[in-house]
C-alpha cells in the first residue's frame, strides 16, 4: 500500500532537535509532519542516550553514597542487584517520556509517519514503512536525522561482547572485566554505571586527559577522584581487538599500555559519534553533505537549498540535545517568517559522572586562543560548608572573567550536582553580568551555588580598578 501526504513542513527525525522543530512549527500554525523510523519518538536522547543514562547514573550515585556513609558509622551492607528490575525501571522512565511526546504531537495535530525516509527530489521524501510506503510532498523540510556511534574497521563490532552506548544501556549483563575505549563523556558515564553495578573497569584514552574539551585544571581533580574507580590509561591507544571464545583480547600501545594483550568480558567502544547525513539521499534534493556526513547550514539553520533546513547532531558539534532543541526552534520560526537566527553565547556541556564535570561559555583554552585578556577565579569546595557537610569537598567552581570589562565569559564546576550549578553561570554570561553582579547577589547559605558568588568575590578581591 502507498499513500501521498502534502504538508507545509516535514521534519526528518524525531530526536530532541526534530520534535522541538515540529512542535514549534505546529504552534506557529504550520501544517507539520514528522518522519521517524522507530515506533517511539524522542531519538537517541530519550531512547538510548541522555535519559536512560541518567536514570542509571542516578541509581549508581545512590549506591555510591550509601557506600560512602559507612565512613560516618552507617552501614547498609553489600547491595543485591536485580538487573531485570533495574532495566524495567529504565524502560519505564523512557516510556513515560516518549509516551508524553506522542501525546504532545497528537495535541498539536503533528502527523507522525513511521518508516525510513529518503529524499527523492527537492520537494519529496519517500518513506518505507513496515506496512505501507508514504510519499511526503513538502514546501519546507527540516533534516534532523541525528548521529550514530563511530565504528572502527579493526574492531569486530558484530561480536555481542563489543558494545556501543546503546548496547551498554540495554543492561544485558554486568561484565566482570570491562574496557571503556575513549575517555569522553559517554564512556565515563557508562563506566560509572557499570562500576557501581560491580564491573572492574579499565578506561583507555588516546589523549593525555579525559574529557578533552574541558580545561586541564578542571579535569585534574576529577581524574584523581575517578582513579579510585577506574584503571585509567591515558596517552594510550588500542591497536587491535580480537574476539576469542573466552573473551575479547585487546592490545594497546602508549604510555600506560599493558605489555600483554588484555582479556575483557566486554568492550564499550565510545570514541565519538558520526552524523547520518550520508544515509538520507539528501543530494537528490540538492543538499550538500561533507565527506564526514555533516550538513552545512547558515545561522538560520538553512542548508544550501533555501527551503531545506538542518538541525541537531547532523549539523555539527557540540552533539548535545539542548543545542539541537534551540536550532529546531530557530528553523521552525524562520520557516514561519520570523527573522530568528542561532547565535548563542553559551552551550553548556556536562559529564554526569561522579563528581560531575560541567562547563559553559569559553574555556580558558578558548579565551587564550581568542587573545582575550582574561583572569580566572576559583573557589575550592574545601572551603564550602555545604560541600564539607555532604562529603563533596573535592569540588571546585571556576569563573573566567574578561579582565578589561570584568564581565564573566566562562565557568566550570566540578562536583556533586555541578551541572545544576551551571545554570546561573550560563545566564550570567548571556546577560552580560560582571563580577560585581555575581558577588553582590545574595546566595543562600549553605548551598553549593554559593560558590559562584564566592568565586566572583575572589576575582573582585584580586582587582583594584573596579569600573
Ligand atoms: P537524534 O536524537 O539522533 O535523533 C535522530 C532521529 O532521526 C532518530 O530517532 C532516528 O531514528 C531518526 N532518523 C534518522 N534517519 C532517519 C531516516 N532516514 N528516516 C526516519 N528517521 C530517521 N546530550 C545531552 O545534551 N545531554 C546528555 O546527557 C546526553 N547524554 C547522552 C548519552 C548517550 C549514551 C548518548 C549516545 C548521547 C547523549 N547525548 C546527550 C547526545 C544527545 O543524545 C544527542 O545530541 C541528541 O539526541 C541529538 O538529537 P538529534 O535530534 O539531532 O538526533
- pLDDT averaged residue by residue: 96
Based on Cα principal axes, name the global outline. globular
| N- to C-terminal distance | 72 Å
The major sheet is characterized as:
7 strands, mixed
Going by helix content, strand content and strand pairing, the class is: alpha/beta
Which stretches of 5+ consecutive residues score pLDDT under 50? none
Rg calc: 24 Å
- Total count of helical runs of at least 4 residues: 13
Instruction: Please indicate the percent range of residues in DSSP E strands (runs of 2 or more).
Output: 25-35%
User: Helicity, in percent?
Assistant: 25-40%
The total strand number stands at 22
> What ligands does this structure carry?
flavin-adenine dinucleotide
Binding site for FAD: 54, 117, 313, 319-322
GO molecular function, one term: dihydrolipoyl dehydrogenase (NADH) activity
Enzyme class: oxidoreductase
Domain Pyridine nucleotide-disulphide oxidoreductase dimerisation: 347-455
What does this structure look like?
The chain is of the alpha/beta class and 467 residues long. 32% of the residues lie in helices and 26% in strands. The protein contains 13 helices and 22 strands. The strands form five sheets. Strands 1, 2, 3, 4, 5, 6 and 17 form a seven-stranded mixed sheet that branches. Strands 8-15-9-10-11 form a five-stranded parallel sheet. The longest helix is centred in the first third of the chain and has 25 residues, at 83-107. The protein is globular and about 65 Å long. The mean pLDDT is 96. Bound molecules: flavin-adenine dinucleotide. Flavin-adenine dinucleotide binds at residues 12-18, 35-38, 43-45, 49-50, 53, 116-117, 144-147, 165, 186, 276, 280, 312-313, 319-322, 324, 352. Disulfide bonds join 45-50. Belongs to the class-I pyridine nucleotide-disulfide oxidoreductase family. Residues 347-455 form the Pyridine nucleotide-disulphide oxidoreductase dimerisation domain. Its EC number is 1.8.1.4. It holds the Pfam family Pyr_redox_2.
Amino acid at each position: 500500500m502507498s499513500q501521498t501526504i502534502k504538508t507545509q513542513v516535514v521534519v526528518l527525525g524525531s530526536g530532541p532537535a526534530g520534535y522541538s522543530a515540529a512542535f514549534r512549527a505546529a504552534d506557529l500554525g504550520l501544517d507539520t509532519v514528522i518522519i521517524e523510523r522507530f515506533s517511539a519518538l524522542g531519538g537517541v536522547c530519550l531512547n538510548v542516550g541522555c535519559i536512560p543514562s541518567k536514570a542509571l547514573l542516578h541509581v549508581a550515585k545512590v549506591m555510591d553514597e550509601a557506600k560512602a556513609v559507612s565512613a560516618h558509622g552507617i552501614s547498609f551492607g553489600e547491595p543485591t542487584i536485580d538487573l531485570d528490575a533495574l532495566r524495567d525501571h529504565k524502560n519505564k522512565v523512557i516510556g513515560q517520556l516518549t509516551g508524553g511526546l506522542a501525546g504532545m504531537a497528537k495535541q498539536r495535530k503533528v502527523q507522525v509517519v513511521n518508516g525510513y525516509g529518503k529524499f527523492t527530489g527537492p520537494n519529496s521524501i519517500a518513506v518505507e514503512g513496515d506496512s505501507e510506503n508514504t510519499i511526503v510532498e513538502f514546501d519546507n523540510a527540516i533534516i534532523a536525522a541525528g548521529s550514530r556511534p563511530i565504528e572502527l574497521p579493526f574492531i569486530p563490532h558484530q561480536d555481542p561482547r563489543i558494545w556501543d552506548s546503546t548496547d551498554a544501556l540495554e543492561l544485558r549483563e554486568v561484565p566482570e572485566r570491562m574496557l571503556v575505549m575513549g575517555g569522553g563523556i559517554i564512556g565515563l558515564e557508562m563506566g560509572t554505571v557499570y562500576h557501581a553495578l560491580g564491573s572492574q573497569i579499565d578506561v583507555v584514552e588516546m589523549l593525555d586527559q579525559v574529557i578533552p574539551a574541558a580545561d586541564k585544571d578542571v579535569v585534574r581533580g576529577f581524574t584523581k577522584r575517578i582513579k579510585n574507580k577506574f584503571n585509567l590509561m591515558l596517552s594510550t591507544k588500542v591497536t587491535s581487538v580480537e574476539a576469542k571464545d573466552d573473551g575479547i583480547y585487546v592490545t594497546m600501545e602508549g604510555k600506560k599500555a599493558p605489555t600483554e594483550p588484555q582479556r575483557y568480558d566486554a568492550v564499550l567502544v565510545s570514541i565519538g559519534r558520526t552524523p547520518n547525513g550520508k544515509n538520507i539521499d539528501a543530494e537528490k534534493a540538492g543538499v550538500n553533505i561533507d565527506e564526514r556526513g555533516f550538513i552545512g547550514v547558515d545561522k538560520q539553520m538553512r542548508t544550501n537549498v533555501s527551503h531545506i533546513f538542518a538541525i541537531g547532531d547532523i549539523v555539527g558539534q557540540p552533539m548535545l540535545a539542548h543545542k539541537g532543541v534551540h536550532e529546531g526552534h530557530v528553523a521552525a520560526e524562520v520557516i514561519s517568517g520570523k527573522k530568528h537566527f542561532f547565535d548563542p553565547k553559551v552551550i553548556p556541556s556536562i559529564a554526569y559522572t561522579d563528581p560531575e564535570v560541567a562547563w559553559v561559555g569559553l574555556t580558558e583554552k578558548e579565551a587564550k586562543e581568542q587573545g582575550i585578556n582574561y583572569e580566572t577565579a576559583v573557589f575550592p569546595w574545601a572551603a564550602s560548608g555545604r560541600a564539607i557537610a555532604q562529603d563533596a569537598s573535592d569540588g571546585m567552581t571556576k569563573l573566567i572573567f574578561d579582565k578589561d570589562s570584568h564581565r564573566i565569559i566562562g565557568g566550570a564546576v566540578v562536583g556533586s550536582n555541578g551541572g545544576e550549578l551551571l545554570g546561573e553561570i550560563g545566564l550570567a554570561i548571556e546577560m552580560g553580568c560582571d563580577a560585581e553582579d555575581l558577588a553582590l547577589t545574595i546566595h543562600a547559605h549553605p548551598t553549593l551555588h554559593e560558590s559562584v558568588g564566592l568565586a566572583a568575590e575572589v576575582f573582585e578581591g584580586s582587582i583594584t580598578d573596579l569600573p
